[in-house]
Structures are given as C-alpha cells and as structure tokens.
Design goal:
single chain; 264 residues; mainly alpha; ABC transporter involved in vitamin B12 uptake, BtuC; 12 helices; 83% helix; zinc; transmembrane helix; cell inner membrane; transmembrane; zinc transport
C-alpha cells in the first residue's frame, strides 16, 4: 500500500514539475489547441505499441514526436489555416486510434485508462520514464530558455539578434510532445493539456517575471496533484480528473479572492 501511493504521488509531482514551465509557454504563445492535437494523437501511439509489440511509453513518445514534426512542417506550407490543420489532425488521430484498437484481437485495452488517466496505477517503470523524460525536458528547457523567451516576445526581433527561430520553435514543439507522452498515464489523453494550461494560467496573476511564472505553475501543479490524490482516495473519484478539478479550484481562488477582498 505504501509503494502504491508513493509511486502515484511521485509520478504526479514529476509531471507537474515539468508541465509548469512548458505550460507557461503554451499560455504565452496561445498553443493550447496544438497541445490538444498532440494529446489526441497519443492514443494512436498506444495502438501502435500493441500492434508492433514494443514498449508502450516508447511508442507514445515516438508517435507524438513524429506528429509534432509533421505539424511544424505542414504549418510552413501554409496550404491550410493552422487552426483547421490542428482540428483535422487532432480528431483524425484520436479516431484512428479508437478504430485501430477495435481490431486488436486477443488484447484487452482499457480505453478509460488512456482517455482519463490512471494515476493510482503508476508503477516503477512508469516512474522511471517520468524521471528520465522529465530530466531531459528540464535540461533542454534550461539550455534554450533565453531563445524561447526571445521568440515568444517577438520572433522577428529574435531573428535579428541571431536566434534560430525555426529550430527553437521546433524544440518547443518537441518538448511539449514529450511531456504529453509522459503525462498520458497521469491524467489521460483528454486532460493532458489542462495540467499544463490551468496551473500556468493561475500562476500568471501571481508573477512579475517569466521565471516566477514557471516556478509558480509547477508549485500550483504539485498542490493540485497532492489534493487530487487525497480527494480521489477519500471520495473514490477518478484520480486524473480530480487532479484537474483541484487545479481549477486553485485557479478560481487566485482570480476571485483578490476581487472579494478588494470589495470588502
């Protein structure tokens, strides 16, 4: 029982720590729909993992990374509007994954686990993936933090200052794809981006610098994970959605309480 809860807590905290800084860039650059598109494609990676008989986490990571590169390439062509392209890929990838699952003979797949997460089922292997993948994401984020901030503020000015805008944008897309692949086990395909967006949106009101916003987003995410696991254990609710609800409560409290105090 101790290991059961320990893995869930450590896994959730690990995802919250890496989702916070990236969530800040998602909020700043208004990339929520891009995150949803990659999240929906994660189910296709699950199906490919079963079909090719390879490690599930590796299959999801590879699928998300390939689709991230494909999205960036298609955006450059300017044949279809970006929001239309993202909508097509998001729902198509999710539908392909659901249809492909139905053709898996002799394989029992719990779709609810992949769609809404199963935080309390995180095992040692999942925890290792989260730690290794999270360390890689944070290391890369630290290495290109200044360039990411530069293209977020003004891409043309960043290019004049010598920043490789195309490469930096691609790195950001790949980092988001990697975090989504890692977090699928925690909150599921349908709720992954909420764990990046809600804490970052809440932290935005508390922060005066980009670094503080990234830090506060991670802290708010960690509190949401701890509160969500406690609530799930006490009221027997799904762990992933409960974590998201806990993040939402913090968001509402941060935005509404100051207004109430000012009124008083």
């Amino acid at each position: 029982m101790y290991d059961f809860l320990l893995y869930a807590v450590l896994g959730g905290l690990g995802v919250a720590l890496i989702a916070g800084p990236l969530g800040a860039f998602v909020v700043w650059r208004r990339m929520a729909y891009f995150g949803d598109s990659l999240a929906h494609s994660a189910l296709l990676g699950v199906t490919l993992g079963f079909l090719l008989d390879i490690n599930m986490n590796l299959a999801v990571v590879l699928c998300c990374l390939v689709l991230a590169v494909l999205l960036v390439s298609l955006q450059k062509q300017r044949i279809i509007a970006t929001d239309t392209l993202l909508g097509i890929m998001a729902h198509s990838a999710l539908s392909l994954g659901l249809v492909a699952v139905s053709f898996l003979d002799g394989v029992r797949v719990d779709l609810m686990e992949f769609l809404f997460g199963d935080l309390l089922a995180v095992g040692l292997q999942d925890l290792i993936w989260i730690v290794v993948g999270g360390a890689a994401v944070l290391g890369m984020l630290k290495w290109c933090w200044d360039d990411l901030l530069a293209i977020t503020i003004n891409e043309e000015l960043a290019q004049v200052e010598g920043v490789n805008v195309a490469r930096t944008r691609l790195i950001l897309m790949l980092l988001i794809a990697l975090v989504i692949a890692i977090a699928m086990k925690i909150v599921g395909v349908l709720l992954i981006t909420s764990l990046m967006i809600i804490p970052a949106a809440a932290a935005r009101r508390l922060s005066s610098t980009p670094e503080r916003m990234a830090l506060f987003a991670s802290l708010i995410g960690c509190v949401a994970v701890l509160a969500g696991i406690s609530g799930s254990w006490q009221w027997d609710t799904p762990a992933g959605p409960t974590v998201v609800v806990a993040a939402l409560i913090q968001f509402l409290a941060i935005y509404l309480l100051p207004l109430k105090r000012a009124r008083i």
